[in-house]
TrEMBL record:
The active site is at 150 (acyl-thioester intermediate), 242 (proton acceptor). InterPro entries: ASADH-related, Asp_semi-ald_DH_pep-lack, NAD(P)-bd_dom_sf, Semialdehyde_DH_NAD-bd, Semialdhyde_DH_dimer_dom. Residues 4-131 form the Semialdehyde dehydrogenase NAD-binding domain. Belongs to the aspartate-semialdehyde dehydrogenase family. Pfam families: Semialdhyde_dh (PF01118), Semialdhyde_dhC (PF02774). This is Aspartate-semialdehyde dehydrogenase.
């Protein structure tokens, strides 16, 4: 029997992608859609300005959108997927958790809270057990789990694959697609024939979230990885797919061949949305490229290439689809992990 789920912030870009991924999912049944008060009471087809590259599923289009409040969502919902703006999520998500709902959230609020698991299932599935600490400390019957920022998700799996060589310093420069800013986030006059070498708060997210993801959980507390991380984030005129240039200094000698082998061998999980392989490594020096490679593994895999030795350690490029693997797909995968581990 499928798990009844709801989508918080269902009319936004990530909410739409969540619906696209959840509607055919055999383990999940969409039973609630929420949005702003101005959308509440309308059918989803009326409320959403649909922009995903497939039609609105007919049954979803006729569902009535409710306000984003615990009292407006049926209490028999087993799991909520949140794509709320962080300012709203910071207030609303704890209220849902206190009311007994389990929330798998893409929103940036609370990602760095000590008792909130920040999870990429293939990397740190054991961090999910922080939910026991969270429930004890907050007195919640529900629970809150986060997936990382879309750019963090892109390069951290490649770091996890080579972590055995001893990660010391990581430098990452991102070339981020405009969809990462939302439909109205960057005007055409800003981005056409241009690149914007600053994205507010993005550098901090990459530098802090990566260390939390690669940290160690002892069953009671989470200690962050001690590697040094510096990031520079840039917006470029691609639609989807975040491309990143990475330099890594390791304690032990790490050749490009060693790194490629480790990335290719890094395991995926026996979850529906976890791709095989997790990391697709290209031998060609000019790959990966956003337009050509963002949909590897149905948009859930990480693409890597251009591995070479430099005076600053190993250098390589990596790429992920920012609204699938980097956002909606990551939340769905966390939902699968919650189900697999008996939290629903």
């Amino acid at each position: 029997m499928a798990v009844r789920v709801g989508v918080l912030g269902a009319t936004g870009a990530v909410g739409q992608r969540l619906i696209q991924l959840l509607e055919p999912h055999p383990d999940f049944d969409i039973a609630a859609l929420t949005a702003s008060d101005s959308s509440a009471g309308k059918t989803y087809r009326q409320a959403a300005k649909w922009r995903v590259d497939s039609p609105i599923p007919n049954d979803i289009g006729e569902m009535t959108v409710t306000a984003t409040e615990p009292g407006e969502v049926p209490d028999d919902i087993d799991l909520l997927f949140s794509s709320l703006p962080s300012s709203i999520g910071a207030e609303v998500e704890p209220a849902f958790c206190e009311a007994g709902y389990v929330v798998s959230s893409n929103s940036s609020n609370s990602r760095m809270a000590e008792d909130v698991p920040l999870v990429i299932p293939e990397i740190n599935a054991d961090h999910l057990d922080l939910l026991e600490v969270q429930r004890d400390e907050r007195g919640w019957d529900g629970a809150l789990v986060k997936n990382p920022n879309c750019s963090t998700i892109t390069f951290v799996p490649t770091l996890a694959a080579i972590a055995e060589y001893g990660l010391e310093k990581v430098h990452v420069s991102t070339l981020q697609a405009v969809s990462g800013a939302g439909y109205d986030g960057v005007s055409s006059m800003e981005i056409i024939d241009n690149a914007i070498p600053y994205i507010g708060s993005e550098e901090d997210k990459l530098e802090t979230e990566s260390r939390k993801l690669l940290g160690e959980f002892d069953g009671a507390e989470l200690s962050h990885n001690e590697m040094a991380v510096s990031a520079s984030c840039n917006r470029i005129p691609t639609i989807d797919g975040h491309l990143e240039n990475v330099w890594v200094e390791t304690e032990d000698e790490l050749t490009p061949a060693d790194a490629a082998e480790a990335m290719r061998a890094f395991p995926s999980l026996d979850l529906r949305s976890s791709p095989e392989p997790l990391i697709h490594v290209f031998d060609e020096p000019d790959r990966p490229q956003p337009r050509m490679d963002r949909t590897v593994g149905d948009g859930m895999a990480i693409a890597a290439g251009g591995l070479q030795e430099t005076p600053f350690g190993l250098q390589y490029n990596c790429l992920a689809h920012n609204t699938i693997r980097g956002a909606a797909g990551a939340s769905v995968l966390n939902g699968e992990l919650l189900l697999e581990n008996g939290y629903l």
